[in-house]
Description:
Elements: H1 6-16, E1 25-27, H2 29-35, E2 38-43, H3 54-63, H4 66-71, E3 73-76, H5 80-92, E4 96-100, H6 106-114, E5 118-121, H7 126-140, E6 143-144, H8 151-167, E7 173-177, H9 182-194, E8 199-205, H10 210-217, H11 240-249, E9 252-256, H12 258-272, H13 278-289, H14 291-294, E10 298-303, H15 310-318
Parallel strand pairs: 2-10, 3-4, 3-6, 4-5, 7-8, 7-10, 8-9
Antiparallel strand pairs: 1-2
Amino acid sequence: xxxxxxxxxxxxxxxxxxxxxxxxxxxxxxxxxxxGFRYLLKHExxxxxxxxxxxxxxxxxxxxxxxxxxxxxxxxxxxxxxxSLAYAARQFGVRCTLVLPEHGNPGKIQSMRALxxxxxxxxxxFDEAKLHCERLTxxxxxxYVHSAEEPLLIAGVGTMADEVFDEEAAPxxxxxxxxxxxxxxxxxxxxxxxxxxxxxxxxxxxxxxxxTESFRSGKMVRYDSLDTIAEGLATRVPAQMTMEIxxxxxxxxxxxxxxxxxxxxxxxxxxxxxxxxxxxxASTAAAWKLRDRLKGKTVxxxxxxxxCDLQLLAEVCAGYSGL
Length: 323
């Protein structure tokens, strides 16, 4: 039995829709022309925090026992998870402390601070920051919110996929970016219930492939270093709960390079006039990489976030030669 099921997603809808609206699912003609098949984007970049994770933050923080709300919460983040918790914590009057790697995305850092969170920068990457966060949890007596090992987070972000199936009842393929896997787990749980024929495919950076290699090998694969422009995909160590769900319900995974991500970011900006951060562009990069396999199918890609660093955006635009 899995730690999250479809009933949990239905319950999460009640909480999520008190504070958030369903996001756009749209088919863009230029992308269809470029890819060679019907391709729809789920625009989670339209969320108030610019990313899908706010759904999980609202669901989890709203359901915390009063004692935990009084103590406050702490978590580790590269940005979007932290924004989701900071946003939810502000709604419910909960103190929020966030530990993040040094030299993170400036826009995400500014947003978390503006939402009222206390920020602590520590370590070269997410996993080093996470170890420090766990030490602070003990010292300060706060409620630790893991970015993946939380059933309420997974159920909350699952509402994203539920909206997809409300509008497109039987897509052939659903492509979802993977950091630690809350988004793809929520999506796969929904797909298995709403249309078991839909294939759920995860996408990771080739410079941060720990989850993909763990999925394929059946072992927990860890990396000592990363090489990716996508902080939302930059994890060296998989999470146990989400790996269990992925191995049960996800059909396949694909890796994309930094150049693939930059190309997809530029395509999305030109073809849809939407800004995608690298992780948000990962589904479209994967759709291009798998274009021969996906020919003739209806495919939904999750544009998971739009919180792109402006210096990276300038680099992407400068190197782009057109659709």
